[in-house]
Automatic annotation (TrEMBL):
One Gene Ontology biological process: phosphatidic acid biosynthetic process
Segments crossing the lipid bilayer: 7-34
Protein name from the UniProt record: Putative acyltransferase
InterPro entries: Plipid/glycerol_acylTrfase
Species this chain originates from: Shimia marina
Amino acid sequence: MRLALQWILSIIYVVQNAIMMLAMGIVFFPWALLSPRGAMAACNSYATWAIWTARWLVGIRCEVRGEVPSGAVLIPAKHQSFLDIMVIFKALPQPRFIMKYELLFTPIIGVYAWRLGCVPVRRGKRGAAIKAMLADVESGRVPPGQLAIYPQGTRVPVGDYVPYKVGPYVLYRETGQAAVPVATNCGMFWPKGTMLRTPGHAVVEFLEPIAPGLDQKSFMAQLEEVIEDGSNALMAEAGFVPETGDR
């Protein structure tokens, strides 16, 4: 009975979220076309709504831990759920995301991503994707801020492991910026591939910065270790104990 009720509430949540995304996208659209501030206001409003309704409708309480960076840094983040995108976006003062190239052609969303200064890359063409990232960063098309990238390149279900890609290191090396890793357990409550949302304490944690200057091997090893260990700790705190020996 309880599970059936949670399914009903989850479906209501998903449907009303889709309606609000469309409604806010249309209302803010003229302002977003004129100014990036309009795009930022729209996305902040939607993220606030989605996070707030997640708490009272499906029982997901969101928390941000750690020191949120305010300067120009890289944000390599664990990606388990659409929820962690919204929490990270709302927490950062000037967020920019590395995103799938195809999203540029999504009605309304593509315009917002472009106006926010997100960096589109083509999946499956790693060399071309890295060059595109560097070109956008070096050309100044991406305004100063926090550039978020998902080192594993996709949402990773809780308990699964996907190898880390080299993209974060290339940006770290070429920009000379520090990297602030981010851990999360959001996938426990808003998992990939289902409409079911389960109650719980979802956390996004900004970890200690990795200073500029490391070589690729050292950087990638440290990045993976701190993100995976941090995410595993958050998941264990919420009641999930990941299997060991997967990495």
